[in-house]
Specification:
Blueprint: H1 2-29, E1 48-53, E2 59-65, E3 71-77, E4 85-90, E5 96-98, E6 106-111, E7 118-123, E8 143-144, E9 150-155, E10 162-163, E11 171-176, E12 183-187, E13 194-198, E14 206-207, E15 214-220, E16 226-232, H2 237-247, E17 251-252, E18 258-263, E19 270-271, E20 279-284, E21 290-295, E22 306-311, E23 318-319, E24 327-332, E25 338-343, E26 354-360
Antiparallel strand pairs: 1-26, 2-3, 3-4, 4-5, 6-7, 7-9, 8-17, 9-10, 11-12, 12-13, 13-14, 15-16, 16-18, 18-19, 20-21, 21-22, 22-23, 24-25, 25-26
The structure holds calcium ion (3 copies).
Length: 362
């Protein structure tokens, strides 16, 4: 009997020590980062601290925080034949749940701020349950804008799904203002790709851009006063013909996308990047004075994407990542503590893209 209690005591002591170690680790690093992926930080990537890898297989992208900075919502698939579905991740427990229907293809999910009890994402499941075929690359590298995409709102567990765009053609890329006032999204309903805003229930849809060319991928500033987006405006006759030809087949060639900023009512539009590359996935810094984005501007072949930052007036351009492979979809947590991005670094197999979280140091 004494021996039995002795064993119990040893186990309790061991558990106590482990708990204390864990508590120390949490205290040292904060709860969501642990530095376990610090060896993946390039020496020149001086803004990243306590890097942690959050996913370990497949293609994971476009991870966005809940307004309380405790969860991520992102899209993921594993294998060429599979289609993206939407998942949420609890950053404290690591628990991942699929919150889309599992049918069709989905993209660009976001929590419905400020309460996060709902989510928004784009999906094609209401037209066809099958995963649609990938685009034909015989016309070069193109993005397919599936005509059957609509934007849906659902509870954060995926239940009670409700369609909030109802026109034919591409509606997607919805993101929500931090105060929950409006959704900004991309739609082809006018005949060209434009930035639109609407209420979270889908009412009061307003078109903010009207220039021939691709306007898309928009995000609000934290104070909801400004919108940043990517645009390509064809200029020469050849460019216009090529753009219109591709658009008629719901295709986009993402070769020369420049970042632009405007007021949330569509006034005072300004271009803020000026290079030959594709610049996309812009996200405001916590102070709304600077923007981080993804660009291939440094690679003459246009293959290697990296994160860059620039002031909202286009000055003070700075390269953030230096990994030889894709780095993209950068976001800051609403509380300003964390930074999340997607990267090919440490991939288990060719083509894998994983999500990483770090603390940002200036
Ligand atoms: Ca639609
Ligand atoms: Ca346009
Ligand atoms: Ca890179």
């Amino acid at each position: 009997m004494t021996k039995y209690y002795h064993y119990i005591l040893v186990i309790l002591l061991a558990l106590g020590t482990l708990t204390l170690m864990r508590w120390n680790a949490l205290n040292r690093y904060g709860s969501f980062v642990d530095g376990s992926a610090n060896e993946l930080i390039d020496k020149k990537e001086k803004h990243f601290k306590n890097l942690k890898q959050l996913t370990f297989r497949g293609e994971n992208a476009e991870a966005y925080f809940s307004s309380d900075s405790k969860k991520l919502i992102f899209q993921s698939h594993d294998g060429d034949g599979a289609c993206d579905q939407i998942y949420t991740m609890d950053l404290k427990t690591g628990k991942i749940d699929m919150v889309s229907t599992g049918d069709g293809v989905t993209t660009c999910a976001f929590f419905q701020y400020p309460k996060n009890e709902k989510i928004v994402y784009a999906s094609t499941h209401h037209y066809d349950k099958k995963c649609p075929p990938k685009p034909d690359f015989s016309r070069g590298y193109v993005w397919k804008l599936y005509e059957s995409y609509d934007i849906f709102s659902a509870n954060s567990d995926g239940s009670q799904i409700k369609q909030i765009t109802n026109e034919g053609g591409y509606d997607a890329e919805a993101t929500v203002a931090l105060d929950g006032s409006r959704i900004v999204y991309t739609s082809i309903v006018s005949g060209d790709l434009e930035i639109w805003t609407m209420n979270t229930d889908g009412s009061d849809k307003r078109m903010l851009t009207n220039k021939l060319g691709y306007d898309g991928g928009a995000f609000f500033s934290h104070d909801a006063k400004k919108i940043i987006w990517r645009a390509f405006y064809p200029e020469t006759e050849k460019e216009i013909k090529d753009y219109k030809g591709l658009i008629s087949e719901s295709l986009i060639r993402p070769m020369n996308l420049q970042l632009r900023i405007m007021n949330s009512d569509g006034t005072d539009k300004q271009q803020i990047t000026f290079n030959e590359g594709a610049n996309f996935a812009p996200y405001f810094f916590p102070n709304d004075k600077r923007v981080i984005f993804c660009s291939n501007m440094a690679d003459p072949k246009g293959r290697d994407f990296d994160l860059w930052a620039v002031n909202i007036d286009g000055t003070n351009l700075e390269r953030i990542t230096h990994f030889n492979g894709f780095d993209g979809f950068p976001v800051f947590s609403p509380n300003g503590k964390y930074f999340v991005f997607a990267s090919n670094r440490n991939q288990a197999k060719r083509g894998d893209t994983n999500i990483f979280i770090a603390e940002w140091q200036n």
